[in-house]
Design a protein that fits this description.
The structure is a single chain. By secondary structure, this protein is mainly α. The chain contains 18 helices and no strands. It is rod-shaped.
């Protein structure tokens, strides 16, 4: 049966070839040759027929025929130069040709031709509509390539468009933050980190995004109150560990909020055990004793610290200072 099928395919191919030879202007004969050559595995005749038909077809059909020829050049003939030229022609004919775009990108990736990928993607996204389903992936790949190439201003333009379309995509938001950090645009980096913190991501990633936003606000933008607000969001979401709460206390002290700082140290201390908990409670006790003039509350904190860690010498010293001062 297979032999009979093969003979039939070769007979069909011969008939189509003769018809094309007799009347090269007959497009129906060329189409019959295209189908017969494909079935018979004659890639050279198949690509030739596709290209002849593409010259006479409307743009959408022409692009599809060129894509078909490009696949044969690449997969059957191994002629990647011809495949590239044919896929590029398909894109010039119909800029929304998804097969041509993806096959060219795959070819350029395999050859390590990042500059060609950038040029291809930049041209394609400039013509694509925002509702094109291929656009988010193309923008993400383009922005990432530009980031690696240190073309940060161009990367930022494309990542802004990407996140206006895919507004909750975690990978896009993370890439946007990375690009703005590399540019030293800390306000923009904070904006992206805040968006990432409320996106549908695991709690661990939300925590990282909030902490990063707080870092940028405190250390790059000198906005401690805004940094504190980010850490308070972590606390409200149950994602703040003792280290984060201690950091909140330090920012409170910087802002002159001694009562809030003392409470934060106490809160952090309650979340731990042993020497580390004792250390935080002693810090709270010192604030109660020396800044807030609350000896009773300070003494209670020192005693609690000694219960958790009997060798907490700072607690002993603090308690002795209370006796001397009050």
């Amino acid at each position: 049966h297979l032999a009979q099928t093969g003979v039939a395919q070769m007979n069909a191919l011969d008939a189509a070839r003769r018809a094309v030879t007799e009347d090269p202007e007959d497009l129906a004969s060329w189409d019959a040759l295209r189908v017969a050559a494909h079935l018979a595995g004659d890639a050279k005749r198949h690509t030739r027929a596709c290209e002849v038909l593409a010259d006479a077809a409307p743009p959408r059909w022409s692009s599809a025929l060129l894509e078909e020829a490009g696949v044969s050049y690449a997969d059957l003939l191994g002629d990647f130069g011809a495949a590239e030229a044919t896929f590029l022609r398909a894109l010039r004919t119909d800029g929304r040709s998804p097969v041509a775009l993806q096959r060219l990108l795959a070819l350029y990736r395999s050859e390590g031709r990042d500059d060609a990928r950038i040029e291809l993607l930049a041209d394609w996204v400039s013509r694509a509509r925002d509702d094109d389903p291929e656009l988010p992936h193309a923008l993400y790949e383009l922005a990432g390539l530009l980031r690696v190439a240190d073309r940060l201003e161009e990367a930022s333009v494309h990542v802004e468009r990407l996140t206006s379309i895919a507004s909750e995509d975690p990978a896009a938001l993370a890439l946007g933050a990375e690009i703005h950090v590399a540019r030293g645009r800390w306000e923009d980096a904070v904006r992206f980190m805040r968006r990432l913190a409320v996106a549908k991501v695991p709690a661990s990633q939300q925590r990282i995004a909030r902490l990063a936003a707080a870092d940028f606000l405190e250390k790059k933008l000198d906005r401690p109150e805004a940094a504190l607000a980010e850490l308070e969001e972590l606390l409200a979401a149950g994602l703040a560990d003792a280290k984060t709460i201690e950091r909140m206390a330090k920012i409170d002290l910087r802002l002159g909020r001694v009562e809030d700082a003392a409470r934060a140290y106490e809160h952090a201390g309650r979340r731990l055990t042993g020497p580390e908990a004792a250390r935080l409670l002693v810090l709270a006790g010192r604030l109660r004793a020396k800044e807030l003039r609350q000896p009773a509350e300070a003494e209670a904190l020192y005693r609690r610290a000694l219960q958790l860690h009997p060798l907490a010498l700072d607690a002993v010293v603090g308690s002795m200072e209370l006796t001397a001062d009050f």
